[in-house]
Amino acid sequence: MYAQMIKSTGKGIKSLDEMEPEERAFQERIDAGGKIEPKDWMPDGYRKNLIRQIGQHAHSEIVGQLPEGNWITRAPTLERKAILLAKVQDEAGHGLYLYCAAETLGVTRDQMTRDLLSGKMKYSSIFNYPTLTWADMGAVGWLVDGAAIMNQVPLQRTSYGPYARAMVRICKEESFHQRQGFDIMMKMVKGTEAQRKMAQDALNRFWFPALMMFGPSDKDSVHSAQSMAWKIKMNTNDELRRKFVDETVPQAEYLGLTIPDETLKFNEETGHYDFAEPDWEEFFQVLKGNGPCNTERLAARNRAWDEGRWVREGLLAHAEKKRSRQMAAE
Amino acid sequence: MSSPESSEYDGTEAAPHGKARTTEWPLWEIFIRGQHGLSHRHVGSLHAADAEMAIKNARDVYTRRNEGVSIWAVEASAIAASSPEEKGALYEPANDKVYRHPTFFDIPDEVGAM
């Protein structure tokens, strides 16, 4: 869900009988809960789908540093600043775990970076929304990281070994992120009236974008079936979205904040909340590059890449010089 | 073998893992030894210009929460690995030697723990 709208192969799912022996063995291994490792045989579509999905996930972690990095110098206390720094550093780490998982599939880091910078590869729509107040740091940790956890916990069981292992590391660290966000929200709602309003405003702005993170409704999600058969997607978008709403509504109530959805209501029959769908037209617009911050985010990544070029080249030249001197001395 | 209708990655078909582009820093595989006397364990990889930087980066990427007391960094291109296709032949010699496992031998109960 940090990976949305991953294009799958255009073909429908094959039955085991229709498969060549290699592919059949591959699918049976996945069905039995086995893991696929980098050097194992895999269908081309599996490899390409995974590169797109893991790559998009990695890019999301990296671009996700921008809206929060925005507040590091403006955190209200030194402690909050240190915590936010640690969180943003974790996001960089998560991006790196995922890039290294994607690289085992035969794509280079440079290629993925280039595709992000050119806009060819996407990152999660959520990071194209601005963080306007300090309460947004609370809402992002609580809702955005909360929604991410919903998706990442089941992905620890995904069929591709390196991806599953990266997810295990990420999940271990992610719970800190959500808790620090909720902690900010608790502080805000117990503060002055202005601070409480700020917290409500942050919830109002982030609620629907957070729901969009799970991707389009199942009925419009054409690429799910193959990904689920391959176990690179473990739950449907709607399942995860509903789970997120069910868990988050009571937390909002605890905070004394109102979810900005008048239709939200607990349904005794289903045991779940009924809730309004996000504006999907807005979602598609944001994915297309027309969100509030798309241009700014991509420009920031491009600037970092361009301005860091002399460092990358300089350190490589230095390493080569050191190596040749060492060889001469031996 | 299935193939996607339109591939975005045709240009990078299965580049050998660990083989960097000329502009890219080399790939290093990172091994960390935890606190409790276990051996070094593979945790992932990262890019670095040289060994010193690989270890510093590994500290930041893989030990932010005191996960380790020792780091090994090995250039990925220097690792030799067995291939999955050889799996059968490579491990076959061990298959018919069940007597290597202690449970192969029946020891009478009256002998006691052994």
Question: What does this entry look like structurally?
Answer:
The complex is a heterodimer of chains A (330) and B (114). Chain A has 330 residues and is mainly alpha-helical. Chain A has helices spanning 21-31, 44-63, 65-69, 78-103, 109-117, 135-155, 161-189, 193-212, 224-229, 237-255, 280-290, 294-307, 309-329, and strands at 265-267, 272-274. Chain A has a two-stranded antiparallel sheet. In chain A, helix 2 (44-63) runs antiparallel to helix 4 (78-103), helix 6 runs parallel beside helix 8 (193-212) and helix 6 packs antiparallel against helix 10. The longest helix of chain A is centred in the middle third of the chain and has 29 residues, at 161-189. The mean pLDDT of chain A is 94. Chain B is of the alpha+beta class and 114 residues long. Chain B has 2 helices and 3 strands; from the N terminus they run ββαβα. Chain B has helices at 51-62, 87-95; strands at residues 27-33, 41-47, 70-75. A 3-stranded antiparallel sheet of chain B has the order 2-1-3, with helices on one face. Mean pLDDT of chain B is 81; it is low at 1-15.
